[in-house]
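Dear U.,

For the methods section draft, I wanted the exact inputs and outputs in one place so we can describe them consistently. I've listed the two proteins in the order they'll appear in the manuscript figures. Please don't edit the C-alpha cell lines directly; just add comments below if something needs changing.

First protein:
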Amino acid sequence: MNIISGAMFPWESSYTGLETSPGEKYGKNQNHITGDIALAAKMLWEATKDQYWLREIGFPLAYQTAEYWASRVKYDMKRDRFVINHVMPPDEYHYPVNNSVYTNIVAKINLLFAKEAADILGTKVPKRWTTIAEKMYIPFDDEHQYHPEFEGYRRGVKVKQADVVLIGYPLMYKMDKQVN
C-alpha cells in the first residue's frame, strides 16, 4: 500500500482548508483539482516570469503537489507505465475510473512543472518525477485515433463533462492533427 504524501488540494473546503465535500466519493477522489491548481501556478509563472513568486510560492506549491502525484501513482509492469487508479474525473458521471485521461495528463504537467521550476531556481527535485511524467499512461485508442475519457470508456457513452476536450484546452496537450 502506498503512503500518500505531499499536498492534495480539497475539492470543497471551509475556511480551515479542510475537505468539506459530501462523502469520500468527491473529496477523496477528485484528485485532478490538485493538478488544476498546479496548472494555474504554471500559467501564472508563464504569464509573469516573476522569479520571487516562483521561489516563494510557485515552486513550493509545484513541489508539494508533484510529491502528491509521485506518491499517488502506481507502476504497471505490463505496460511499463505509471497509472492513477480509482479517481473521479471532471466527468462526475463516471466513478470510480482508472486512468482518467484528464487526471493523468494534469498530473504529468504538474510533475514536469516542478522540474522546470527547480531548474530555473537552481535546485533539484527527485529524478523519479521525470520518469513518472515520461511514463505516465495516457489512454489512447489506436484503432479510432482518439483519447478515451478513461480506461474502459466506450464511444457513445453519455458524459457530464468533456474531459477529453479539456486536454486540448486548457491543458494544451500535444496531439497529432488527425486525433479525434
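Second protein (the one for the lower panel):
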Amino acid sequence: DRALQIGLSVELHLDASSGQQLTLPKTALKKDGKGAVVYRVKKGGLLERVAVDVGAQRGDRVVVRNGVTKTDRIVADASQSNLAVGQRISPVSIQ
C-alpha cells in the first residue's frame, strides 16, 4: 500500500517555470537520431532544419525550450515527405 499516512513525508519536484513558454504543435516536430528538429522558414522563403530542445507535452502542443523564437516561422507539419533543406516555399497563414 503506497497511500500517504500520518507521519510520512513526500518529496515533490515541480517544473514551475515563470512566465510564458513557447509551444509548437506536436506535428511541427520531427525526431531524428539526436533529438527533435523543426523546419524553419528563413528570409527569402528558404527552409532550414533546426535542432530544438523540447520539454513537456500539453495536449497536442509541445514546450520548446530553445532552438527557435516566437518570431520564427515554422512548418506546421514536419512529416511532409517533400520538405528539403534549402527548398523555397511560400508560407500561408492558417486562421
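Candidate sentences for the figure legend, describing the second protein: The longest strand covers residues 47-58. The CA atoms of residues 33 and 51 lie 11 Å apart.

Thanks,
Y.
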